[in-house]
Design a protein that fits this description.
Blueprint lengths: L1 H81 L3 H28 L7 H11 L5 E5 L7 H21 L5 E7 L3 E9 L13 H11 L2 E8 L2 E9 L1
Parallel strand pairs: 1-2
Antiparallel strand pairs: 2-3, 3-5, 4-5
Helix pairs in contact: 1-2, 2-4, 3-4, 4-5
């Protein structure tokens, strides 16, 4: 009799264990399905965020470049219509041509910065320094880290504008770029010896005003001016 009871208890325990296993298996399957759904939603949200970021990057670049281009072409049209200043109109057309070229370069940078196989900020700046007419020195200080595309595009744009202005106003003079990484910010400094050509605080294609506006969109700031016999441009972004 006791033997039968013992067998019955063993069978009951086996049945309970099997039932518990089935319940746990069902719960694990449900949890796995929920995890898959959550991952799909996360991927969908990430894709939407990426599309929004791409649209914002391209919009910012094109809005600024095309807006400035339109203003200069409108002034050139007025000057030509009145025939009051043909040379001035020609200068506006030439400036518009450079604005278009700079805008195209920045748009390409904005698209390239969204790709995974593009050079880092430091490498992009090093390439600019190497291709500068006459060459330019480049240094990096601090621990490098990836930056959002908006910051990368803005800092590369500042470096390009600063090098263009250095070639225009101080041709043949030494030019230096230095990139600083700290815990809270990234700082780009470009300087060159002052040349014989005087310059204002807003010269060149987009000019420093344009670069300042571009940095502001990325939450950064820009300063520029003469300092101890050098013209220094400094851009700072919080990152």
């Amino acid at each position: 009799m006791f033997g039968n009871v013992g067998v019955l208890l063993v069978l009951m325990l086996l049945g309970l264990n099997r039932r518990q296993y089935e319940v746990q298996a069902a719960q694990a399957a449900a949890l796995l399905e929920q995890t898959k759904l959550a991952q799909k939603e996360h991927a969908r949200a990430a894709a939407l965020d990426e599309r929004t970021r791409i649209a914002r990057e391209i919009h910012d670049v094109l809005a600024h470049s095309l807006g400035a281009l339109g203003v200069h072409l409108e002034i050139a049209e007025v000057l030509l219509a009145e025939k009051s200043d043909v040379d001035g109109a020609l200068g506006r057309v030439r400036l518009s041509r450079r604005l278009a070229a700079d805008g195209l370069a920045e748009a390409r940078d904005a698209v390239a910065a969204l790709r995974s196989d593009v050079p880092s900020l430091a490498e992009a700046l090093r390439q600019l320094a190497n291709t500068h007419h006459g060459g330019a020195s480049f240094e990096v200080e601090g621990e490098q880290r990836p930056l959002p595309s908006a910051e990368v595009v803005s800092l590369v744009g500042v470096a390009r504008e600063a090098l263009t202005n250095a070639a225009k106003h101080a041709a043949g003079r030494p030019v230096s770029l230095r990139l600083f990484f700290t815990r809270t910010e990234v700082r780009l400094r470009v300087w060159n010896e002052l040349g014989e050509t005087a310059r204002s605080k807003d010269v060149g294609g987009f000019g420093l005003t344009g670069m300042r506006e571009r940095l502001a969109l990325a939450g950064g700031t820009l300063t520029a001016g003469p300092d101890d016999g050098r013209w220094t441009v400094e851009a700072v972004v919080r990152a």
